[in-house]
């Protein structure tokens, strides 16, 4: 059973290994990305928002217990999407609102958890006419706040209605989970482009993420950049060890180098 659970990661490692080798030749035609999809947790923010909210709401001991239970449910066969739905609805039923999310983002700004060099690089790409989309599996309001704050095109995430019920999840594949629509990051980007009359070409999509749960989207994009934390957690270490990326970005890189990596220069 363990083999089948890790098979997609092994397949992904082989895929990116071959792709990196081919990128060193002229076999693969390189197109500069025009649509940049950026993850939130562990990517534009060097932290994990839901965990930090749990700590803020319940204290570290309970937050750790909730995180442990989340991981155990995944091991028992629960899907990522089911856990996202359960977790977000639990937070909203306990009283979280936009004000609390803004407080968390303000704290990140104050304590250096926002990747400023990456933000600056993305803003430069936006000036060049690139489409910058902040897309997270987490709470949509967070993605929207980040997009608005830094002048990006849009922010998307798992969406709730006025009752605090999840009505759409950013997930690993298109499907329906307990009546909730699930859509991938790339498909969400395509929807956005089509709504604006912009031609969507997957060969011109770059995705930035730290998340092995984005693996399918990472393989579908023309370019995948892994963001590496100074203190990586288990699934980040796994992505680094298996080299599930075309290139990677660390916290010490400056704007100009990040721009070259995203563009594939």
Protein model, in words:
The protein contains eleven helices and nine strands. The protein has a nine-stranded mixed sheet, with helices on both faces. The protein is globular, with a radius of gyration of 18 Å. The protein has helices at residues 2-23, 49-58, 60-75, 80-93, 98-111, 116-127, 140-150, 185-195, 215-220, 234-242, 255-263, and strands spanning 35-38, 131-139, 154-160, 166-170, 175-177, 180-183, 205-209, 223-228, 247-250. Helix 7 links the parallel strand 2 and strand 3 (154-160). With 265 residues, the protein is α/β, with parallel strands linked by helices. The mean pLDDT is 87. It has one domain (2-263): HAD superfamily/HAD-like (Rossmann fold). It starts with a helix and ends with a helix.
Present the secondary structure layout.
Blueprint: H1 2-23, E1 35-38, H2 49-58, H3 60-75, H4 80-93, H5 98-111, H6 116-127, E2 131-139, H7 140-150, E3 154-160, E4 166-170, E5 175-177, E6 180-183, H8 185-195, E7 205-209, H9 215-220, E8 223-228, H10 234-242, E9 247-250, H11 255-263
Parallel strand pairs: 1-2, 1-7, 2-3, 4-6, 7-8, 8-9
Antiparallel strand pairs: 3-4, 5-6
């Amino acid at each position: 059973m363990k083999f089948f659970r890790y098979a997609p990661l092994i397949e992904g490692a082989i895929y990116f290994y071959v792709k990196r080798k081919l990128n060193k030749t002229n076999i693969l035609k390189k197109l500069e990305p025009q649509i940049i999809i950026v993850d939130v947790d562990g990517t534009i923010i060097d932290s994990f928002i839901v965990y930090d909210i749990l700590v803020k709401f319940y204290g570290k001991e309970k937050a750790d217990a909730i995180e442990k239970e989340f991981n155990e449910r995944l091991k028992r066969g629960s899907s990522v999407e089911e856990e996202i739905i359960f977790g977000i609805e639990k937070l909203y039923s306990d009283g979280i609102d936009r004000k609390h999310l803004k407080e968390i983002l303000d704290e990140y700004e104050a304590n250096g958890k926002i990747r400023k060099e990456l933000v600056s690089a993305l803003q430069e790409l936006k000036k060049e006419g690139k489409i910058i989309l902040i897309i997270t599996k987490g709470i949509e309001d967070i993605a929207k706040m980040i997009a608005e704050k830094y002048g990006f095109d849009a922010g998307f995430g798992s969406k709730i209605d006025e009752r605090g019920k999840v009505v759409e999840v950013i997930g690993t594949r298109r499907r329906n989970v307990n009546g909730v629509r699930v859509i991938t990051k790339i498909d969400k980007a395509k929807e956005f482009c089509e709504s604006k009359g912009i031609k969507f070409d997957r060969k011109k999509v770059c995705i930035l993420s730290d998340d092995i749960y984005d693996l399918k989207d990472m393989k579908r994009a023309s370019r995948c950049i892994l963001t590496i934390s100074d203190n990586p957690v288990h699934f980040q270490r796994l992505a680094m060890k298996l080299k599930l990326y075309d290139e990677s970005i660390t916290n010490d890189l400056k704007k100009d180098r990040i721009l070259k990596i995203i563009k594939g220069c």
